[in-house]
Structures are given as structure tokens and as C-alpha cells.
Q: What sequence folds into this?
């Protein structure tokens, strides 16, 4: 169990990644607000997040769930949110084969940008549409085994395995002492120095043509 | 004044006096339309258009749409598909969210199809545009206000001449706009600027990219913001974001700096109710006092970016394509060495020194933009 003061509420950071339209926001909304509102759901632009308080072993935890845009062009930005995430859900749509085939890219990117002990779970969403399934459960399991990550199939719509998925992640985080090597408070957002290097390089290169000044 | 900081001065107050009667306003606008007096129409638009009828005439003109653009063009359907069409379909399928209660399902379905056609036509006609999630929000507002052919043309001009920097292959140029925000906040309200010091301005991304269309549920307010953004510098949304932050300064200052996620969450919301005119007034005032060229981070951006080339005059689609092509090449040339160097350890300090020196040089040479117009 992580070493906490009695009145201290630890903050956990969970990140959702995966292709566009696989249901990342729907999973987040189902878990944090127990809502299913497809007619209200719009594209996530950049990064969105919600907070939920949970109790585990009689202790409160503050969960920040970070939802990211699926479009390729936002990846530079969303990657900077990997920092200090204790758990990541990599989501695909079981009815859309292309979102499954993109998984190696997401999983490799995840490996390259996060600590090795971070909790990773592969989630095949839209289990309610089992009849139009394009990826078998076995294929999902194989993929998860190959990258050594957890696996389950879920549905934000029918509220299947959503709570279980998040809560198991939370429990695993709490049981993994190495994820508590540093206080998470105040470190949940990308730090300035994550992009400073890029920015400075840009100043140098673009700065050679400062003729507007 | 830099070329990007469009200068409209003085005349508005004189014209405002003549606008006391609605008839007179209509007359003046009609005359400006027939004279193609874009400067005057821009002034009127910044002050606020009053009806859909006015917007249907004035938005396309301000964007740059010309009569000859309406001549028969080869159908877009026969043009080669654009690389981003699959993404467009995913996003337009999730559009018209805010109207769902007022509209029938059939109507929503038909508008989604129109929106998809609109965006695909824009992309196929200008294949080097890169679609971003959020462009569909801007196009949705255009489609709600204008007829489809006019919305297509207006979207083409806006894509090429207003928001070109956000439609380049990389997201870096977009982020360079967001990075102006902390500098602006520090200049305008040091206390708030310092309070938000550790928070990256990524919370502002949907506001900036979509001209607030992604989050604004009040359609009147949204149209009013488009009145402002269409004829003004592409940085104006950054000033508008600053205004929405500063109008909640006490609330934000009350949130501890040790709770960055709470601050991030609050910053990602719009003030409710949304005091549109006050905020526009503040945004324009800040723009006049601290134009983009005086903000940290402006100097390092390429010359071909809209940030530096923005103008309302002499716009054509083919010139827009040329600028887009140039900006794409300049952006890529700039990012190529950037990516290479970003892997080289130990270089960071050198960059910081260079960036610092450049910033100092910029200050010394004095980049002072002129005013948008007198409020």
C-alpha cells in the first residue's frame, strides 16, 4: 500500500488513447458521470479531462481521467500528457478492423514515452455491437499478450466492464509502489520543459528570417 | 506596424453617428458592398452585424469571395479524394450537437451530409490543406448562416487566408499561437499571468482552433464572434481567449497553483453567461495595446505564416494556394532540423540562450504594431 498521510487524498492520472471515434470520450463519460449521450457527443479537440473521486480499501482517491483526440496531427500534443500518467487505456473499436490494426503504433508509442511499470490496458470497445464484430476476442488477447498489457472488451453504451476496467486499474496503481516514487500533485500537466526544447529550436531556425521586425 | 496587423482606424465613429436609423445603416452597407469597400465593411462587422441577411452578404465579401469565384467550376466530385476524408466523415457524423433538440433527425442527417460535402469540396479543391478536427466546427457555423455554395467559397478563403497556419501538415504552427497567450496574459494582468505560469495553454486549443464554435452553445454569441474573427488578424481568437480568462480572474486566483488540474479544467470552460460585447471590447483593446508582434514567441515564426502575412485586401484563391504551398515548405524546412536537433542531448541550454538573445533583439528593434481600429 502506498505511504499516505491520513488526510491526504492522492491524485491518480489515467489517460485514454486510441484512434478517432473508437469511444474514448464515451468510456470516460460513462465512468465519471455514468452517462451515455451519443447525440451530445462531439469530437474531442486536443485534450479533455474529468475528475472522479473513488474509494478503495476505505480510502478516497481523486482520479483525473484524461481523454485525448484521436487524430494523428494531435499526437505531438497528446504525447506530452503521457508524462506522469500512472495508467493508460488504449482503446479500439471491435467493429472497426482499422482501429485494431493501428494498435501496434499506439502501443509502441506508449512504450517509448512512459515508465515501464505504468499500468496499461487494451480495451476493445463497442461490445454491444457484437454482431458487427470485426476483431475477435482472441485477436485482442493476442495483441495484449504481445505487448504485455492487460485486456478486456467493454461497452460504454451498455455499461459493460467500464467500471471494472477503471477500478482494476486504480487498484493496480495503488498496489504498485514504484508508481508512487514521487508526489503526483502538481505534476499532472505537461511541464514547461517538455516543449521548451522544440520551442527554442524553432526560435533558432525561424529566427534567421526576422524581416518583419 | 507589421503587415499582419491590419490597420483600420478612425472612420468607425464617424460612420456610427450616421447609423442612427436602420435605413441609413442599410444604405451605407449597400453602398459599401457595391463599392467593394472592404475596410468599411470590416469596421461594421467588428462592431457587430445585426442579422443573418447582413452576414450572408458581408461574411463572404470580407473573407474575399469574388463574383468570378461563383462562375462554373468543374464539379468537386470528379476531383481526386483528399487524404483526410475518412477523418472528416467521423467528425461530421458527430456534428450539429447543439441543435439536436430543436431539429428533426431527418434535418440533422441532411445537414451532416451537406457539411461533409462542404468540407470535402474545400479539401479536394486545395489538396495540400491538412484537415484538423475542429475545422468542421467552423464550417458548421458557416453552413448554418450561408447557403451551401457560398459557405464552400467562404470556407475556402478562410482556410487559405485566415486559418492557414492551423491547416499545415504539422500542429506546431497552431501551438505557436497558443504560446502567445501566456505572454499576453503577463502583459495585461501580471498577477493572473504568473498564477497560470505553470499551466501549458493547451486548454485553449478547442477555442482557438474552432473560433469558439466547438464549445459555444449560444449561437448569437458565436455569430458575433465570427463577425469579429473573419475580418481581423488570425491572432484575435487568442486575445478573445485572454478576455474570457481575465473576466474570471478572481475565480481563477482563488484556485491554488498547487491544483493545476483544477485550473486546467476551469480554463477549459467558457464564462456563463457569456458577456459577448464586453469580451469583444476587451479583446480588441488588448490587441491594440499589445499587438501580436510585441508578444514573446512571435518573432520565431516563419514569414509565410498567416500570423505575418494576414491581409484583407487582394485575396484570391490561387494566391492563397501559393501562400499555403510556401508555408508548408517553410514549416517543413523548419521542423526538419528541429526534430533532428531535439534528439541531441545537451543542446537545450544553447537554444535557451539563443532564444533569449533573439527575444532581446526583438525588444531592442522595437516591434510595435498599430491599432486594429479605435474603439
A:
Amino acid at each position: 500500500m502506498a505511504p499516505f498521510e491520513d488526510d491526504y487524498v492522492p491524485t491518480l492520472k489515467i489517460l485514454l488513447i486510441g484512434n478517432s471515434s473508437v469511444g474514448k470520450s464515451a468510456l470516460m463519460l460513462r465512468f465519471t458521470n455514468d452517462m451515455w449521450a451519443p447525440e451530445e457527443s462531439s469530437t474531442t479537440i486536443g485534450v479533455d479531462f474529468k475528475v472522479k473521486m473513488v474509494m478503495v480499501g476505505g480510502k478516497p482517491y481523486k482520479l483525473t481521467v484524461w481523454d485525448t483526440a484521436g487524430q494523428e496531427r494531435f499526437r505531438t500534443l497528446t504525447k506530452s500528457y503521457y508524462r506522469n500518467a500512472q495508467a493508460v487505456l488504449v482503446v479500439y473499436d471491435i467493429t472497426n478492423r482499422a482501429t485494431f490494426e493501428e494498435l501496434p503504433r499506439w502501443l509502441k508509442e506508449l512504450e517509448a514515452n512512459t515508465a515501464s511499470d505504468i499500468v496499461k490496458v487494451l480495451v476493445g470497445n463497442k461490445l454491444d455491437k457484437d454482431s458487427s464484430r470485426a476483431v475477435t476476442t482472441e485477436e485482442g488477447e493476442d495483441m495484449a499478450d504481445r505487448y504485455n498489457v492487460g485486456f478486456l472488451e467493454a461497452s460504454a453504451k451498455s455499461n459493460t466492464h467500464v467500471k471494472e476496467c477503471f477500478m482494476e486499474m486504480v487498484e493496480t496503481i495503488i498496489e504498485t509502489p514504484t508508481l508512487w516514487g514521487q508526489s503526483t500533485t502538481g505534476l499532472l500537466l505537461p511541464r514547461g520543459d517538455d516543449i521548451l526544447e522544440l520551442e527554442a529550436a524553432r526560435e533558432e531556425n525561424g529566427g534567421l528570417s526576422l524581416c518583419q521586425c | 506596424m507589421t503587415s499582419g496587423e491590419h490597420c483600420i482606424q478612425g472612420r468607425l465613429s464617424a460612420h456610427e453617428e450616421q447609423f442612427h436609423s436602420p435605413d441609413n445603416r442599410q444604405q451605407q452597407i449597400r453602398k459599401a458592398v457595391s463599392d467593394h469597400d472592404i475596410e468599411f465593411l470590416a469596421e461594421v462587422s467588428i462592431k457587430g452585424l445585426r442579422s443573418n441577411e447582413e452576414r450572408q452578404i458581408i461574411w463572404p465579401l470580407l473573407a474575399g469571395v469574388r463574383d468570378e469565384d461563383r462562375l462554373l467550376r468543374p464539379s468537386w466530385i470528379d476531383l481526386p479524394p483528399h487524404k483526410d476524408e475518412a477523418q472528416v466523415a467521423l467528425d461530421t457524423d458527430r456534428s450539429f450537437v447543439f441543435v439536436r433538440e430543436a431539429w428533426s433527425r431527418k434535418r440533422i442527417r441532411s445537414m451532416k451530409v451537406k457539411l461533409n460535402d462542404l468540407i470535402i469540396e474545400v479539401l479536394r479543391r486545395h489538396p495540400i490543406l491538412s484537415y484538423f478536427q475542429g475545422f468542421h466546427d467552423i464550417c458548421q457555423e458557416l453552413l448554418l448562416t450561408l447557403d451551401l455554395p457560398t459557405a464552400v467559397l467562404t470556407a475556402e478563403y478562410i482556410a487559405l487566408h485566415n486559418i492557414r497556419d492551423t491547416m499545415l501538415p504539422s500542429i506546431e504552427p497552431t501551438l505557436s499561437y497558443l504560446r502567445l497567450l501566456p505572454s499576453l496574459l503577463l502583459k495585461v494582468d501580471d498577477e493572473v499571468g504568473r498564477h497560470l505560469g505553470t499551466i501549458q495553454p493547451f486548454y485553449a486549443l478547442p477555442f482557438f482552433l474552432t473560433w469558439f464554435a466547438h464549445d459555444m452553445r449560444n449561437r448569437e454569441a458565436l455569430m458575433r464572434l465570427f463577425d469579429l474573427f473573419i475580418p481581423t488578424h488570425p491572432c484575435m481568437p487568442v486575445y478573445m481567449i485572454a478576455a474570457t480568462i481575465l473576466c474570471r480572474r478572481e475565480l481563477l486566483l482563488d484556485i491554488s497553483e498547487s491544483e493545476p488540474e483544477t485550473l486546467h479544467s476551469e480554463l477549459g470552460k467558457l464564462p456563463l453567461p457569456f458577456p459577448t460585447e464586453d469580451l469583444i471590447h476587451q479583446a480588441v483593446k488588448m490587441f491594440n495595446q499589445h499587438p501580436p508582434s510585441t508578444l514573446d514567441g512571435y518573432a520565431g515564426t516563419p514569414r509565410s505564416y498567416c500570423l505575418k502575412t494576414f491581409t484583407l485586401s487582394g485575396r484570391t484563391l490561387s494566391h492563397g494556394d501559393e501562400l499555403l504551398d510556401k508555408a508548408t515548405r517553410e514549416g517543413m524546412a523548419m521542423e526538419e532540423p528541429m526534430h533532428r536537433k531535439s534528439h541531441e542531448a545537451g543542446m537545450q541550454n544553447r537554444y535557451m540562450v539563443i532564444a533569449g538573445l533573439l527575444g532581446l533583439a526583438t525588444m531592442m528593434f522595437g516591434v510595435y504594431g498599430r491599432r486594429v481600429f479605435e474603439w
About this structure: Confidence is low (pLDDT under 50) at residues 7-15, 341-371 of chain B. Residues 8-69 of chain B form one domain.
